[in-house]
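Just wondering, can you check both lines?
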Amino acid sequence: MTQKPKDTWSAWKECVRHRQVFLVVSVMALLAAIVVSASIPDEYPAYIKISDERKETDILLGLNNFSAWARGAIDQRKGLRMPEVYAQTVRTREFAQEMSKVKIEGYHTDYYHYLLEHHHSPWWEDIFSSLFDNGDEHERILDLIQNNIQSKASSIYNTTLLQVTDQDPVVATMLADTVCMRLEQRLIQYQRRRATRDLAHANDRTAQAEKRFKKAQKEYIEYSDSHADITSPAAQAKEDHLFDEYEAAFSSYNKEIELLRRAQALVQKRPSTFAILNHATVPVKKSRPATFGYMLSFLFISLTLTLWIVLGKRKYKEYRMNHTLASEWKS
């Protein structure tokens, strides 16, 4: 039995032949996107942009000219004052715990209970939460706070963008200001603790340097007085050696006194933190739901799946036809 020629087909023609299917799928995808978008509560982002306001007059306080111009002296007291550290600090669990206690004006409650009572979720999240136990409610609220507080650091411009998202634009603005204030308080506390610790170390080093200086001074004076009439080379060499130790101890003592005065000045001064480049304003434009984005996503996914199904069915039909022809030819 002779074999029939294979049936050739075009993917484009196959799609055109099923254009009604693609049209129906597209309409259903758009409707689903609209329903999903309408089910998501509106959220508004409030922004604050900050920049490091490090002052060289504060950092280089009490240093000599060489140390003041050395870059290592500038970086020595940098500590937490970096955009990357700012961004990481506000995203920590500890910071979320602190923010949960913030009082929300107009709602007469704190941020934790505000989210617990006034935060709305999409209907599918409520269904999943009722079907599956998500664990501790306290941890869930803290996760929500961490998701609402976002940050982005720019090492190029030395800035940090702080963002707080909430379903109430006024609350989002207030929380953005609170995040900035809490971050500033944390930096001030850190710098004061560090300055106090540095002052204690400076006092210890100064006391030790003073002991070495007085010891070297006493040894040199006693040896000079006891060997005033001796002019032997060995005695003179011993006296020169003690005098060199005395001068080295005196120089080290003066250096420690200089650093101690600087540490005392840094403890007394008010720590500088950062400058606010853009203050938070009540947002008008919502960040979500993005209806147009959902429509594009749903269209792309549904049309891609439909295309694979249509072409897959056609390919399977061709495979079955070839298999039938091959069986008839063999028989």
User: Anything to note?
Assistant: The chain has a mean pLDDT of 82. The CA atoms of residues 28 and 302 lie 9 Å apart. The two ends are 8 Å apart (CA to CA). The chain has 13 helices and six strands.
